[in-house]
Design a protein that fits this description.
Belongs to the C/M/P thioester hydrolase family. This is Thioesterase-like superfamily domain-containing protein. GO terms for molecular function: fatty acyl-CoA hydrolase activity. With 289 residues, the chain is of the alpha+beta class. The protein folds into two domains: 1-99, Thiol Ester Dehydrase, Chain A (Roll); 105-289, Hotdog Thioesterase (Thiol Ester Dehydrase, Chain A), CATH 3.10.129.10. 21% of the residues lie in helices and 32% in strands. It is built from seven helices and twelve strands. A hairpin with a 4-residue loop joins β10 (241-249) and β11 (254-262).
């Protein structure tokens, strides 16, 4: 995924990965992953990336090469360019997995969350000829059309904003979509890192609907994304993961998201946090006038 240019530079060529919705914008999850891989390559096998914080400066496109400049300090600083700087990152590394912070399962309420087969995938709801409104069909179609992950939400009504509530916690079983499952992943963390940025604006929409903004999110972007690694091996990158996410709406335009990713044995692999901004449909239209 990355070509080594020299000891402090790495390059990735397009076509790059778009987000889960139709977009010409580079997927933030890819920028996070590229920074993680560059930090790993700099430190070879001597170090484990335990924490990574990425700040997004401007959107990247899907075709121009990505160049990552690395400044080997403590912690390691990375600058991702696409003609211009599109993100900067700081990576903290440790020498052993024993130094990773373990997140105890008893602190997380997963006991009432079923197995993957207890919840149908989104494709199932598209295939229904009755019992599912056109609104539901339209709401989930874009997730299915460009799916990076197979998605099995705990509640389809919550997922498509039919049951709006404040303080909602999104819980979904996800695994890499079938079309990508022939890939070989030398590092199993690649998949959960990509997943960490996948559905971040779904609970934002739910919160905004519950707070009385019926248009929800028309446009939005993350300002930063941080991951904390709890587990680096002992799980199947092609297996199912629990994606758990909640958000706080600080204002109509500013949101904070925090989540966890668990493997099938329900061990926590990653904690992630994001701060983002959103625009309603009216605001997005007025900004173009």
């Amino acid at each position: 995924m990355l070509e080594k240019v020299n000891e402090k530079q790495f390059r990735a060529y397009g076509n790059h990965m778009p987000g889960p919705n139709p977009s010409t914008r580079l997927y933030g999850g890819q920028m996070i992953l590229q920074s993680y891989l560059a930090a790993k390559m700099v430190h070879s096998k001597r170090k484990i990336v335990s924490k990574l914080r990425v700040s997004f400066h401007s959107p990247g496109n899907l075709t121009d090469p990505l160049l990552i400049d690395v400044r080997i300090q403590n912690p390691t600083h990375l600058i991702l360019r696409q003609g211009k700087i599109i993100s900067t990152a700081v990576a903290k590394c440790v020498s052993s997995s024993r130094e990773l912070f373990r997140l105890a399962l008893e602190h997380n309420n997963l006991s009432n969350f079923g197995s993957p087969t207890d919840y149908p995938p989104l494709e199932y709801y598209l295939s229904l000829s009755s019992g599912s409104s056109q609104y539901v069909q339209d709401s989930i179609h874009e997730y299915v059309e460009r799916a990076l992950f197979e998605t099995r939400p705990e509640s389809i009504s919550d997922f498509v904003y039919l049951n709006t509530k404040i303080g909602f916690k999104l819980r979904v079983w996800c695994r890499l979509h079938q079309r990508f499952r022939d890939n070989v992943f030398e590092d199993p963390l690649i998949v959960p890192i990509l997943l960490s940025d996948y559905l971040v604006f779904n609970p934002v929409n739910i919160e905004l609907y519950a707070l009385g903004f019926p248009d929800g999110v028309f446009a939005g972007a993350s300002m930063n994304h941080e991951i904390i690694v709890h587990k680096v091996d002992g799980f199947d990158p092609l297996g199912y993961f629990i994606y758990e996410l909640e958000c706080t709406v600080n204002s109509q335009n500013n949101v904070f998201m925090q989540g966890h990713i668990y493997d099938e044995s329900r061990d926590c692999i990653l904690t992630f946090e994001q701060q983002g901004f959103v625009l309603s449909k009216d605001e997005a239209l007025s900004s173009k006038m």
